[in-house]
Specification:
By secondary structure, the protein is α+β, with helices and mostly antiparallel strands. It contains ten helices and six strands. Strand 2 and strand 3 form a beta hairpin. The radius of gyration is 37 Å and the shape is elongated.
């Protein structure tokens, strides 16, 4: 009766196999290291420019107008809460920002002189098909631009990579400007919608106030001795409350209307740049030496695994080919 057998490769056998092929493993590692260093040297250097910014809070007066509009059954396109950092991270990767960045050459400052960069040429994009060329440039910019969000502080870190350090900084500045321009246009549009609502509501409230004042004036003219009558006193107090309430509403809406007018023409930045884009001095990524060492380790590790796999297969074949008891 034969029993089922299971084979396990002895560690001593693995060590002997690796020692017997030590020269081959070293050779593979050396070749891998040389290839890694060679590829790193041939690959164009990439320069990474970084910047950080944070969004400003939305105006509370505009949020108050939106709340008032909802009370009257009117919905205004306004974000009552501050836009989250995740919103800006997605915005930077969207076509709404990347298409303006892709249009026109980038003019950057280099040692006090203006340098102009053709983005199609810098990213190696053919212009034969203008429609496809712009889409390809937008995709290339999306790959070259990265955004990270710090959850605790809400700070956004912008990273822009290119083959020229001056271009990297110039692109980072253009991205920040495009984000600010887009956000400012949206906020102005929201303020315009709120100003229009506040203006219409203010005119209506003023008419209602005049009507309430006319009712109170008529009552006083017809009832000069109303204080001697409880019923007339109650009616007077009710008319007086109506006038006071309308006055408060008119005053509040008038303030909101003026604030919305200010926001509609406001030109101050809507994002706060904490750290301006820097001019990178050294290429990003690993140096040729570090890349070679890493490639040598990886190549040697794969070669060692291949030796172990071959040794295990040979030993397993020999084990099951032997006699069974």
């Amino acid at each position: 009766m034969s029993a089922e057998r299971e084979y396990r490769l002895a560690p001593a056998r693995v060590v002997r196999a690796l020692r017997s092929r030590a020269r081959a493993l070293l050779l593979v590692g050396a070749v891998g290291g040389l290839l890694g260093a060679f590829v790193t040297v041939l690959r164009p250097a990439t320069y990474l420019s970084t910047a950080s910014f944070m969004p400003q809070e939305s105006n509370p007066n505009l949020s108050r107008i939106s709340s008032m509009a909802q009370q009257f059954g009117i919905s205004l396109p306004v974000d009552a809460s501050p836009r989250s950092p995740a919103f800006y991270a997605a915005l930077i990767q969207s076509r709404a920002v990347l298409e303006p960045v892709a249009r026109g050459a980038v003019v950057a400052d280099s040692d006090g002189r203006a340098v102009e960069f053709d983005l199609f040429e810098q990213f190696g994009i053919d212009r034969e098909r203008p429609d496809r060329a712009e889409a390809a440039l937008v995709d290339a910019l999306r790959d070259a631009i990265g955004v990270r969000v710090e959850r605790e502080s809400g700070l956004l870190e912008l990273e822009v990579a290119s083959r020229d350090p001056v271009l990297s900084r110039g692109l980072a500045l253009r991205v920040l400007a495009a984000v600010d321009t887009f956000d400012m246009a949206v906020r102005r549009s929201e303020a315009a919608a709120e100003r229009a609502f506040a203006g219409e509501r203010l005119a209506a409230l003023r008419g209602e106030l005049e009507a309430a004042e006319d009712k109170l004036r008529t009552f006083l003219a017809e009832n000069r001795q109303f204080r001697n009558s409880p019923q007339l006193s109650f009616q007077h107090e009710r008319l007086q409350r109506e006038v006071v309430m309308r006055q408060d509403l008119v005053s509040s809406i008038a303030q909101s209307y003026e604030q919305a007018r200010i926001e509609e023409v406001r030109s101050t930045p809507v994002i706060t740049v904490v750290e301006s884009p820097n001019l990178p001095m050294d290429p990003a990524g690993l140096s040729a030496l570090m890349a070679g060492l890493l490639a040598a380790v990886i190549a040697g590790a794969f070669a060692a695994m291949a030796v172990i796999a071959v040794e295990y297969r040979e030993a397993l074949t020999s084990f099951y080919a032997g006699p069974r008891t």
